[in-house]
Amino acid sequence: MAYEIDTIRTSQEIFYYLLIHHELKEEEEGRLYRAYTEQEEVQNLVKSQGEAADSVIERYGNVIYLIPKEENDVLGFSKGQLKQMLCRSGATDKDYYLSQFAILTLLVEFYDGQGSSSKAREYIRTGELMNSISTHLKEGAGQMDEEAQEHSGIAFSDMLQAYEALKSDEKGSRAKTTKEGFLHNILIFLEKQGLVEYVAPDEMIKTTKKLDNFMDWNLLNQNNYERVQKILRGTKDE
Predict the structure, then answer these.
(1) What number of other Cβ atoms are within 10 A of residue 154's Cβ?
(2) Do the beta carbons of residue 169 and residue 178 sit within 8 Å?
(3) Model confidence pLDDT, tens digit, residues 16-58
(4) Please, which residues bridge with residue 64 across strands?
(5) Using the 8-state DSSP alphabet, how is residue 178 labeled?
(6) What is the pTM of this model?
(7) ∠ CA 152-153-159 to the nearest 5 degrees?
């Protein structure tokens, strides 16, 4: 199919905007937003450019998002980069997987996969989240032996060991060697990605509209929700 030069230029302008901002809102850039939503050829070209860049372009509500695929280390983050940002110095794989488990627990605390909106609560305190992480790790390690954990791909015992190796500091230390600091750094990272609002002085965590949209429209259908619940309960998929 041959495209008009103006159509190609508009699609390139939209994709470049998404590369810089990662999202395109109707109220902030109405001309580009309307071009994407009202012109099928423009939308197809933008999606094609996203695919070439190992990403997907999706519209949720009145916002268009550039979403890097899981293995995209250019527009996203590599495992090594995340380990360095989220974990303590000299972190091992068990520390990295613990950080991902903490994020997974946060998502399940906020979203229940039910109704027209999956969001189940408006905020959570950091202390409650820490207790939930500990509870789920202990339940998983207690219900599955080492062989079952290896078979399921969820090393609860290793993650629990990494979590319990972190010190506890009631004074609210921000050091990554403490449970409080470990969670603080994860929340700061999520806040920088525009996914949560973290009010550190009040120890309060809220989700953003961006994360709500992702969960409602893309990440959290009923099948995914049930799979996540099985992981946190320490049970295997049938």
Answers:
(1) 22
(2) yes
(3) 999 999 999 999 999 999 999 999 999 999 999 999 999 999 9
(4) 24, 59
(5) B
(6) 0.77
(7) 115
